[in-house]
Structures are given as structure tokens and as C-alpha cells.
Amino acid sequence: MKISNTYLQLGTAFSESINPLPVADPHLLLWNQSLADKLALSQGLPDNENALAQLFSGNDLLPEASPIACVYAGHQFGQFNPQLGDGRAHLLCEFVDDHQQRWDLQLKGSGPTRYSRRGDGRCALGPAIREYLMSEALHALGVPTTRCLAVVTTGETVYRDLPKPGAVVTRIASSHIRVGSFQYFAAKGDVVSLKTLTDYTIDRHFPTLKAAANPVLELLGAVMDKQITLIVEWMRIGFIHGVMNTDNTAISGETIDFGPCAMLGIYHPGTVYSSIDSGGRYAFGAQPSICRWNMARLAEALLPLIDEDPDKALAQAEALIADFSPRFEQAYQTMLGAKLGLDEIQQTDVALITELLEQMQEQQLDYTQTFHQLTRSLTEQQIATKLQDTLGDWYGQWRQHIGNDSKQQQAAQALMQQSNPVVIPRNHHVEAVLQTCELTNCSAPADALLKVLRSPYQMLAETADYQDLPTDNDRHYQTFCGT
Ligand SMILES: Nc1ncnc2c1ncn2[C@@H]1O[C@H](COP(=O)(O)OP(=O)(O)OP(=O)(O)O)[C@@H](O)[C@H]1O
């Protein structure tokens, strides 16, 4: 394992050097062996659970690690906070895998830092397991995401609304650079550090842009494209992030922060589960426009580097941001087309897609189930008949679009099978698993759910146990940022 600390080397304006605060009694609850194998991490790590627990609680450090807490700012629910940062996280080090890809190895819940404000620097076990489960689910679904290597219980109690068992979660990310990282330096008027961060980001994530005529403008466009891909993928599987603040928007285009996230059941664009999002700012269907808003905040932060002439910089940034909606719409319609087995989208297809979504909303149909049933209906007459009853004329029109030829139908079904999961991490199953794991301090329920979530496009023997809809259709379901 080749370890380095390149973010630390950017200088003291970017982070605080600080070690994790040791915990009383660390035990390894979840360990992601397949991720460790994929990143060739195991060679550099101990092979016994106790030593891993010491390492991934922060009690022990890898010899070459120089832990830091990174500073950033961010718009939280639209309000700018100029001073945020890793208040309970330590970036232990970076490592480079066998494909020369650089990764961050970060602990979360590992103790207070300069950026903790009134927080205790700790994480409760439930949210740590949620982050592990949801990020693994997203990864298996094909959605760009940060991932978890381990969850270690600490043997300590953290005090939230009630006393909770504590945990440290280890996160692997292609970096932890956020829109808020740029906003921090822009708000301070520290253009030198802003330039350092921008050069570092281009070098680390988008090295081909170095040769561009205007690398900073190109960076903005590249980040925007990655965010569009990300949000389209969230919408494909029905993911509601719940807290799309600019400090939770990673430049890499990976999903980060699973605090109040949830999955869409019944299709409704206004669906919100987060208890603190009473205005629906981060509702399922609001995610594209919020993403655009976040990209506009990144553009603002980068203005001094786009052009020396402020008017020219603004004009160029505005032109790029104006392109967000058409670029998004194209990617979004293509994705929905694929969910319906259509590999090229015409104007009539857009009308067909829109009508289906309207029907799903009116009839309160489950998002995942509906697309899964449509997929099956191409080869299962009973399901086709049932859907015809539910969707009326729309169903016949859709079948016409697919065509009668068996080759066309096979190709459509293959496309749909890749686009429509048979199972998602349904909110009631995730909650049940978190509760049982918390109560028993045992990973078995999480392991069982993970087995199914790791094959979301396949019916395993156990898949049916996790496909059911919640009895109340999640009408009373709420998620909490409470950590
Ligand atoms: N218990 C805590 N102690 C100290 N700081 C905290 C705590 N919980 C959250 N924070 C800080 O509050 C801010 C917002 O928290 P948020 O829940 O969005 O992030 P997080 O889950 O801690 O981290 P990340 O965004 O890296 O996943 C962050 O700067 C975070 O470090």
C-alpha cells in the first residue's frame, strides 16, 4: 500500500493536523473485504480483527499516516456558513491502488477537531451502519459513491436525543474536496489558496484539463457533468439524498453524506423524508434544480480564476451554468428511456415517459416495483395483463414503441434489466436492520441485507424477503440528520 499525504502538503490554510482521539473498547462490526481486495489494501493491513479494530477506530495509526481535519465552508439549506470543516472526521492518509488511482482513507466519529463547534466529534452506531449499507447499495446499483471499509464500535456512549452506542466509520473516497472547499477560500478572498486548491483538484481529478485554454472554466464544466451524471443516477434508482448542501457536494461526483437519505417508494416528485427539510428544498424531484444551484455556487467561487476581467469571468460562467438544464434534461430523458427499454429518445417518447410518471403519481404506484413489473411484462403475459388494467391505454402505446419483433423485445428487456433494480434498500428494511444491529451489537442482520443489496439486478433466493412495500407506504417515515 503506497501511502501519502498530499492534501496535508497544501499547507496549514487547508487543514488542521490532529490525531484521532482514542476510544475505550474498539470492536470490528463490519469489514468490507471486497473493497479491501479491490483496492489492494489488505497487503498493508494486519490480518486479525483486533488489530483492524485498533486501526480503524483511530487508536493505532499506520506509520506513514499524518491525520488531518480539512476545512471547508458551505451553503446549508441556502444559508452560507463560512466556517465548517471536518468536525468529527480525520483524513488519515491517501493511498494509490494498483491502477494508480489515489484514494482518501478517512475516519468519521474519530474525535473532536478545530472544526467541531459544539459537537462531540463522535458518531452513533446507527448512522455509521446506515452509511455503510447505503453506500454499498448505491455502489452495487452502479451509482458513483464514496464507500465504507469498516464500522468499528467504540465501547463508548454518545449522547443524542437518547444515549446511543458509538462507532467510527472508515470512508474511502476518491477525495473529500467539496464545493464548500472552494467556497471557503473564495469567501475569505484568499485567491492564492483558491488557486492552489483548483490546481490540486485539476491535477488529482481532471489531469487532461491542464492543457485546456481555460482549465478553470473546463473544471467547472467537468464537475457539472459529473454532478449531472450523479443526480440522473440517483433519480434512476429513486435515491433522495436529503441534504444537498454545498459542503455535501463532492467535486469527484461521488455521493457523500448519507445522514438523512432515503429511498423513494410511491412515486411523487415532492417526496421528502428528512425531518428538518420542512420546505421540501431537497425533495426527490427538486434534486436537479438544487444541483444546478450548487453548481452556480461553485461557479461564483471560481470566478476570480476564470478570467482577470470580472465581467468576462461572469459571462463565461453564466453561459456554462445556463447549459446545465439542457444537458441535464437530455441525460435524464435518456435514463428514463432506458428504464422503458428505449435506447433512443424521440419527442413522442418524452411524452410517453411523462404520461407514465403522471399516472404513477396519480395512482400512487411504487417507483421500483412499477419499472420491475414493466420489465417482466415483456415476457410474462400475466403481468402484462395486470399492467394493462392498471395503466390502461398507456401500456399498449408503450408496447407499440418497443415493437412486436421478438429481437426488439429482447433488446428492450435487456436494457430494462440493467436500468431497473429488482430490489433497493427500502427504508423500513434499513431501519429494522439498524435497530437490531444497535440492540444486539451484532452484524448478522446487516450482512443478510447486504447480501441481497449487492446483487440488485438479480433475484437471489433471499431477494423476495426485501422487496415488500412498507405497510403505511412510508407515510409516517422520517429521517434525521441526528448523528
Ligand atoms: N458530532 C459532531 N461533532 C462535531 N462536528 C460535527 C458532528 N456532527 C456533525 N458535525 C459537523 O457538522 C457539519 C455538518 O455535518 P454533516 O452531518 O453534514 O457532516 P458529517 O456527516 O459529519 O460529514 P460528511 O459530510 O463528511 O459525511 C460538518 O462540518 C461536520 O463535521
Topology:
Layout: E1 2-4, E2 15-17, E3 27-31, H1 33-38, H2 49-55, E4 68-76, E5 79-85, E6 89-96, E7 102-108, E8 123-124, H3 125-141, E9 147-159, E10 163-173, H4 179-188, H5 191-205, H6 215-237, E11 239-240, E12 262-263, H7 287-306, H8 310-322, H9 324-339, H10 347-363, H11 367-377, H12 381-391, H13 393-402, H14 406-419, H15 427-440, H16 444-453
The site of adenosine-5'-triphosphate has 18 residues, from strand 5.
Cofactor: Mg(2+); Mn(2+)
Protein name: Protein nucleotidyltransferase YdiU
Binding site for ATP: 85, 87-88, 108, 120-121, 171, 178, 257
Q: Can you tell me about this structure?
A:
Its cofactor is Mg(2+); Mn(2+). ATP binds at residues 85, 87-88, 108, 120-121, 171, 178, 257. Its EC number is 2.7.7.-, 2.7.7.108. The structure is a single chain. The protein is α+β, with helices and mostly antiparallel strands. A hairpin with a 5-residue loop joins strand 6 and strand 7. The longest helix has 23 residues, at 215-237. The protein has helices at residues 33-38, 49-55, 125-141, 179-188, 191-205, 215-237, 287-306, 310-322, 324-339, 347-363, 367-377, 381-391, 393-402, 406-419, 427-440, 444-453, and strands spanning 2-4, 15-17, 27-31, 68-76, 79-85, 89-96, 102-108, 123-124, 147-159, 163-173, 239-240, 262-263. Strands 1, 3, 6, 7, 8, 9 and 10 form a 7-stranded antiparallel beta sheet that branches. It is globular and about 65 Å long. Helix 6 (215-237) runs antiparallel to helix 7. The two termini are 32 Å apart. It has a domain at 2-173. It has 16 helices and 12 strands. The site of adenosine-5'-triphosphate has 18 residues, from strand 5. Adenosine-5'-triphosphate binds next to strand 5.
